């Protein structure tokens, strides 16, 4: 009676080994899922960035308003006959 129980226990351990320790174990699956989630988040960030860049390219191709706005704010350019006035920002309250 004792030998069949030992054989059954050995078979049970042999079947459980791949599930907990071997290739494709529960731990490996959880690590793979965590890596996959990190990759998905990075992809979403890149997709939002690509959509923003695509919208900016569309604006730049469609008219002069976007180009003029960028020239004014990024390069501080003015139209002929305009006067550029820059007011200093207040940093403290009085």
From TrEMBL:
It is a single-pass type II membrane protein. Keywords: Cell cycle, Cell division, Cell inner membrane, Cell membrane, Coiled coil, Membrane, Transmembrane, Transmembrane helix. Pfam families: DivIC. InterPro entries: Cell_div_FtsB, FtsL/DivIC. Residues 22-94 are periplasmic. It comes from the Bacteria. GO terms for cellular component: cell division site; cell septum; plasma membrane. It is found in: Cell inner membrane. Its main location: membrane. Transmembrane segments: none annotated. Residues 29-70 form a coiled coil. Part of a complex composed of FtsB, FtsL and FtsQ. Belongs to the FtsB family. Essential cell division protein. May link together the upstream cell division proteins, which are predominantly cytoplasmic, with the downstream cell division proteins, which are predominantly periplasmic. HAMAP family: FtsB (MF_00599). PANTHER family: CELL DIVISION PROTEIN FTSB. This is Cell division protein FtsB. It comes from Candidatus Dactylopiibacterium carminicum. The lineage of its organism: Bacteria, Pseudomonadati, Pseudomonadota, Betaproteobacteria, Rhodocyclales. The gene is ftsB.
